[in-house]
Design brief:
The protein has a domain at 2-314: ABC transporter transmembrane region fold (Up-down Bundle). The relative contact order is 0.08. The chain has helices at 2-8, 11-47, 52-100, 104-109, 112-154, 156-163, 166-203, 205-211, 214-267, 272-290, 292-314, 371-379, 401-405, 422-426, 435-444, 470-482, 500-511, 549-555, 557-566; strands at 332-342, 345-356, 360-365, 386-391, 394-395, 408-411, 488-492, 518-523, 534-539, 542-547. The protein is of the alpha/beta class. The strands form two sheets. Strands 6-7-8-3-9-10 form a six-stranded mixed beta sheet, sandwiched between helices. Helix 3 (52-100) packs antiparallel against helix 5 and helix 7 (166-203) packs across helix 11 (292-314). The chain is elongated.
Length: 570
């Protein structure tokens, strides 16, 4: 809790929060204790003495203190809520910002389900403690202390009898905490797993339908969901067991006090009104103890959630953005003996390249040979394990990552589209585009199918372009990349879902853009790259040949074989 107060609550907010807490607690004490006292006085000073004035005055005092108390408590809650939800918003933004700036390794090792759990369940757990449990528990504790003193004023021995039950309550609570400590951490993992499964299945809905695996997926979901529910039942079962023990202990304590209180009334040591007050205040004393299991339950969730958020905030991306220079113009890019490795696997080996501005370069080779990694290295989505990459003869790491990526238009093999209009997808990287310019880039990308849609560029395409075909999504993503007029255009196998004629037109448009840029085309089909200034053939994570289309046909057997297969010669 201290970590959250220190990092996510401003000093003025701390003052407001704790001031509101004090107002709320004072209101709670006023509304919970004094009405009971005045009711006791109605009996002793009014009913027992036939004093109508005492009945009326104490009745009015009881109503007044109750209404005044709950009004103050309400005011305190309102101001606490405002501060709490600001904290919630601030932590949520911090999590979102942190996730956005994490590197590829973080995304490789962290599921979408885990990220959703951080932004939803964990934030909810923190909000509940700050918004409810803190004020409730502190209010009950202070009310309990006042009640103990007043009960001792009425009768010390009777109060001590009740206090003797308190250690038994505490033993039950400590035992509950020990028994459930690990269970809450396991539950959170199961929630993340469930969220991840749901996310993947929603995204893969078309594939599941195509393969007819709905029943299998439903069965798998039921297993994961049942596993989570069963674990949740175990936690709740333990909690309810301990709560029932607490109830039993409370009943024993209450019956004991009734019996002893009755004897004291018979002996004339306390009045009926005093015993009524005592009986009412005993509940106030027991309330925080009785509710401790619920608070312990919430606190356990709070600790696990805070730990996960703190762990994220303290995790630094392994890819450092230490560059201080701003990249303005890209004149050339050089790879000097670049290697990329992940544990037990080489992704690229001994890559040497010299790429110049305003020229077109292409990479072709077998699937998994490392072609796409070259584009990711230029974007600094990943960094080289060995060797160096130079931009304008300076190490790429001298520049800020932002200034590099601002100059690059990138279209991946699996394009992502937002659940928004076509217009807002195309101008995502350049909000100043006019409708006419958007239509221009759609035509360049051969996304002219948009003209046939009822709402044109204002058509909402659904989540990740669910209403579009694979080829339509690829062309829309290409239009988005072209629209920022990048200095480098990286196209990673973007024509895989296009027919032959459309692919030819797209390739021709890319070769004849109305602005200059370096083009890096990663492809499986020679038709997309044959006009490149230089083509690199990649095999087994290495560049085995380079040259123009004609040169490679004459001196690279692998390239010639690919060409002959794709053109039906072989």
């Amino acid at each position: 809790m201290y970590w959250i107060l220190k990092n996510y609550m401003k000093n003025i907010e701390k003052l407001k929060y704790f001031s509101a807490l004090c107002v709320n607690v004072f209101g709670d004490v006023l509304s919970r204790i004094w009405p009971a006292i005045f009711i006791g006085m109605i009996i002793d000073e009014g009913l027992m003495k036939n004093n109508y004035n005492a009945i009326i005055s104490n009745f009015l005092l009881s109503i007044t203190t109750f209404v005044g108390g709950i009004t103050l408590a309400y005011i305190g809650v309102v101001f606490m809520n405002k501060v709490t939800y600001r904290i919630n918003s601030r932590i949520g933004k911090a999590i979102y910002n942190k996730i956005n700036f994490m590197d590829n390794e973080y995304y490789r090792n962290t599921t979408i389900g885990e990220m959703n759990t951080l932004l939803q369940n964990d934030l909810k757990n923190i909000t509940k403690v700050f918004n409810h449990d803190v004020k409730q528990f502190i209010g009950e504790i202070i009310t309990s202390i006042f009640s103990i003193f007043y009960c001792m004023k009425i009768n010390i021995p009777l109060t001590i009898v009740f206090i003797l039950f308190i250690p038994l309550y505490l033993i039950i609570i400590v035992t509950f905490n020990k028994k459930t400590k690990i269970m809450y951490e396991i539950e959170r993992k199961k929630v993340s797993k469930l969220n991840q499964y749901l996310q993947e299945n929603i995204e893969a809905n078309k594939l599941i339908k195509n393969l007819g695996t709905e029943e299998k997926e439903i069965e798998n979901f039921n297993k994961i969901n049942t596993d989570y529910v069963n674990h949740k039942i175990k936690i709740n079962y333990k909690m309810y067991n301990y709560m029932e023990i607490m109830k039993l202990l409370s009943e024993i304590a209450w019956i004991t006090l009734i019996a002893i209180g009755g004897l004291l009334i018979m002996q004339g040591n306390i009045t009926i009104g005093e015993f009524l007050i005592f009986n009412s205040l005993i509940y106030r004393i027991a309330s925080p103890i009785y509710n401790l299991i619920e608070y312990a339950n919430d606190w356990r969730y709070f600790k696990v959630s805070t730990h996960k958020i703190k762990l994220l905030m303290e995790t630094e991306p392994k890819q450092k953005d230490d560059g201080t220079e701003v990249l303005n113009n890209i004149e050339n890019i050089k790879f000097n003996n670049v290697n990329v490795k992940i544990p037990e696997k080489d992704i690229l080996k001994n890559i040497n390249l010299n790429l110049e501005a305003n020229k077109t370069y292409a990479f072709i080779g077998e699937v998994g040979s490392g072609k796409s990694t070259i584009g990711k290295l230029i974007l600094r989505l990943i960094d080289a394990s060995n060797g160096e990459i130079l931009i304008n003869n300076k190490n790429i790491q001298n520049y800020t990552i932002k200034s590099i990526r601002e100059k690059i238009g990138y279209v991946s093999q699996t394009p992502f589209l937002f659940s928004d209009t076509i217009k807002n997808n195309v101008n995502f990287g350049n909000l100043e585009l006019s409708d006419k310019e958007i239509q221009h880039y759609l035509k360049l990308a051969k996304a002219d199918y948009v003209e046939n849609l009822e709402d044109g560029i204002h058509t909402i395409i659904g989540e990740n372009g669910v209403n579009l075909s694979g080829g339509e999504k690829q062309r829309l993503s290409l239009a988005r990349a072209l629209a920022i007029k990048p200095q480098i255009l990286i196209l990673d196998d973007i024509t895989s879902a296009l027919d032959y004629e459309t692919e030819l037109e797209v390739a021709n448009n890319i070769n004849n853009l109305d602005y200059k840029c370096m083009k890096i085309i990663i492809a499986q089909k020679i038709i997309s790259i044959k006009n490149a200034d230089k083509i690199f053939v990649v095999n087994s994570n290495e560049i085995i040949a380079e040259g123009t289309h004609e040169e490679l046909l004459n001196r690279c057997n692998m390239y010639k074989e690919i060409y002959e297969i794709q053109n039906g010669i072989k």
